[in-house]
Design goal:
Elements: E1 3-9, E2 13-20, E3 26-33, E4 39-40, H1 42-55, E5 62-69, E6 75-77, E7 87-88, H2 96-105, H3 109-120, H4 129-139, H5 141-146, E8 149-151, H6 153-161, H7 178-181, E9 184-186, H8 187-190, E10 196-197, E11 202-203, H9 205-212, E12 220-222, E13 236-237, E14 241-242, H10 243-251, E15 257-262, E16 266-269, E17 284-287, E18 293-299, H11 303-313, H12 317-326, E19 335-337, E20 354-356, H13 365-389, E21 396-400, H14 407-417, E22 421-423, H15 429-443, E23 457-459, H16 465-475
Parallel strand pairs: 1-5, 5-13, 5-14, 9-12, 15-21, 21-22
Antiparallel strand pairs: 1-2, 2-3, 4-7, 6-8, 10-11, 15-16, 16-18, 17-18, 19-20, 22-23
Helix pairs in contact: 2-3, 2-4, 4-9, 10-15, 11-13, 12-13, 12-14, 13-14
């Protein structure tokens, strides 16, 4: 049996799966938590990876490994390969003003947004790496001056697995820091930086320099099945990718599907043959992990909306589900706009959540539970509409992520989405996608291993357009304060 491993270094934890190359069968797995917060010392990711690998039985009998990780995080290294400051994560919104400034500098308004979309497929928002570089340059100039290379979380972990650490000696005059030259990434993750173009397959260093204020080393972009070297133990390294591209690979998404993932963030994405460029900024025109494209909508709020509702009502998730399913569709007019952490899509980083339509009749736990579930699903339904507006066609929604375990979400989703919903069987789809990529690098060929995903549950329901209509009315009452 030939074994391959996949790593998911997500916002909340690190997961490792070890699978059989031929069948995709899970052999063993491990997990370790990550610290909370919107900025993290990358050393904490490395420590968690070591714990997760140990729980998963290590890599001694594994032939290849690949790392998938949360996208956009800004990891800055100095000339010796040391981390300059804690990484700013995707959900850190302090760079909202920087994002607005970057759009303004390319013409402002619709002109600037279109220029960015045409250049890199994405209009800058606070999540995107280039905005974090601008924030660093403006707010921590001493740290910015020390930056010799910029990479992403999965890039840094792959680099460390390859034996390149933060304790190397600084180069002499005129020398290139060789260890930094070993930094690599892939199309999927590079496309979320704001300075790499999926359409042209090249960096836009002029846009990078708009962020940091000068040039620095960036990782080499590898092809989908191109090896990134080997670990110090001789295990072949895949190029890795971002978490959403890995999830698409892990779940086996087809062109007839849109995948909706309800985790710390909410994402809706589809595998397409052609790139997209949405000047509205709703759809990010990313690349995927197979050489294709991954138009994607990402929200800051997702499964934790359900956590918040549980906290408010003093119930667990099973009780929240029962309450939500007791209430009528539309919750009697009670609407939760779930911008609990601000919002990325629509771009309202300083907004707050809001509850509309409270009456004596709707002031019950069941109505609030239903409003929380429907608010979350309406947020994601807006994401589906944005994909359709960019030419994505699909007949089914594949639901994954921790939020998909909710019985209320499963039963209400097809009514809100207006399409059948397949809830994929529970699994670590990001880590699975990374493992599948590792198998692809190991085996070669034009496509990744054809592992099959069996099981899951299908849900259908009569559409409830009035729920979305009422949500849209309440959404527009939510004030988006200017960033800064």
């Amino acid at each position: 049996m030939t074994l391959v491993a996949g790593v998911d270094s997500s916002t909340q934890s690190c997961k490792v799966v070890v699978r059989d190359l031929d069948s995709g069968e899970l052999v063993r797995e491990g997990r370790a938590p990550h610290p909370e917060g919107t900025e993290v010392d990358p050393a904490r990711w490395w420590s968690a990876l070591q714990v997760a690998l140990e729980q998963a039985g290590g890599l001694d009998d594994v032939a290849a490994v690949a790392v998938a990780a949360q996208q956009h995080g800004m990891v800055c290294l100095d000339e010796a390969g040391r981390v300059v400051r804690p990484a700013l994560l995707w959900n850190d919104t302090r760079s909202a003003r920087a994002a607005a400034d970057l759009v303004s500098e390319l013409g402002g308004g619709e002109v600037g947004a279109r220029a960015w979309a045409e250049a890199v497929g994405t209009v800058p928002v606070a999540a995107i790496t280039v905005t974090k570089l601008r924030w660093l340059a403006e707010h921590e100039p001493e740290s910015a001056r020390r930056v010799a290379a910029v990479c992403l979380p999965h890039d840094w972990l792959t680099w460390r697995l390859g034996g390149h650490g933060p304790d190397g000696a600084a180069p002499g005059p005129g020398e290139t820091p060789a260890a930094l030259d070993r930094l690599v990434t892939d199309r999927g993750d590079a496309s979320g930086t704001g300075y790499w173009s999926p359409a042209t397959g090249s960096y836009r260093m002029d846009l990078f320099e708009r962020g940091l204020g000068r040039s620095a080393l960036v990782p080499k972009v590898l092809g989908p099945s191109e090896a990134a070297g080997a670990t110090t133990g001789g295990v072949l390294l895949g190029p890795g990718t971002g978490d959403n591209a890995a999830a698409a690979l892990g779940v086996g998404a087809t062109p007839d599907d849109v995948v909706v993932s309800l985790g710390t963030s909410g994402t809706a994405f589809a595998v397409c043959e052609t790139p997209t460029a949405d000047p509205s900024g709703y759809v990010a025109g990313f690349a995927d992990a197979t050489g294709r494209y991954l138009p994607l909508v990402c929200t800051l709020n997702a499964a934790r909306v359900l956590d918040a509702a549980c906290s408010l009502l003093g119930v667990d998730h099973a009780q929240l589900d029962r309450l939500a399913l007791e209430a009528p569709a539309g919750a009697g007019g009670l609407v939760l706009v779930p911008y609990l952490e601000g919002e990325r899509t629509p771009n309202r980083p300083d907004s707050t959540g809001a509850l509309h339509g409270m009456r004596l009749a709707t002031s019950t736990p069941a109505h609030l539970a239903r409003a929380a579930v429907e608010g979350l699903l309406c947020l994601m339904a807006d994401a589906l509409d944005a994909l359709v507006a960019q030419g994505v066609r699909f007949s089914r929604v594949v639901l994954i992520g921790g939020g998909s375990r909710s019985e209320a979400v499963r039963r209400i989703a097809p009514a809100v989405f207006g399409r059948p919903v397949l809830v994929a069987p529970e699994g670590e789809y990001v880590a699975d996608g990374a493992a599948r990529q590792a198998g692809w690098v190991l085996a070669g060929g034009q496509e990744p291993p054809a592992w099959t995903t069996s099981g899951g549950a299908a849900f259908e329901a009569e559409a409830t357009p009035f729920v979305r209509e009422r949500y849209a009315e309440a959404r527009e009452l939510t004030v988006a304060r200017a960033p800064g």
